[in-house]
């Protein structure tokens, strides 16, 4: 992404449209794109981007979410399983201002300008945070976080995380490899759980989490120790 808001993309295309360049730019053409190519179908300057397993998200400067690519697990949040070769806005979010986006293997999160979290896509590992393993066809608010003001979100392969304005860290989803940071959780944690071991450290004062990052089977966070 350039400072003028133009989006460039490259890599392998396997027929699901993740590059957003239309048909004919896939593995039949030397395995994909080795040189970045401009995504011309985005009509507005782009402020942020995120890549999922086989799909792509772009957030415009006006806070509108566009996406494209694979959709067999409702990754695009449009209510169907029809994939997309070209960028299109998410219909249910056209009147919602989004300030941050995050993508996992087959799911996504979006953060609204009033600190609420939406999730959609595959939910088989509890990564959507709705208290079940059901997938979501369209973006749905994570009600378990409704009492918090969220300022940062992140997705792993099948896990998710959120940071509040008070510096609290919540995580949910696949816990099979201890990637949620809370001992004793079931393999599938379908509701957000607070990671609170950071709050006190040998009497030196509590930690305030600033941001979080998720991998496929691990996670890390950036924290600030507050004065007592």
TrEMBL record:
Location of the RCC1-like domain: 4-221
Keywords: Repeat
SUPFAM superfamilies with a match to the protein in the record: RCC1/BLIP-II
RCC repeats: 5-62, 63-114, 115-166, 167-225
PANTHER family, sorted: OS09G0560450 PROTEIN, REGULATOR OF CHROMOSOME CONDENSATION
Record-given protein name: RCC1-like domain-containing protein
Organism of origin: Trifolium subterraneum
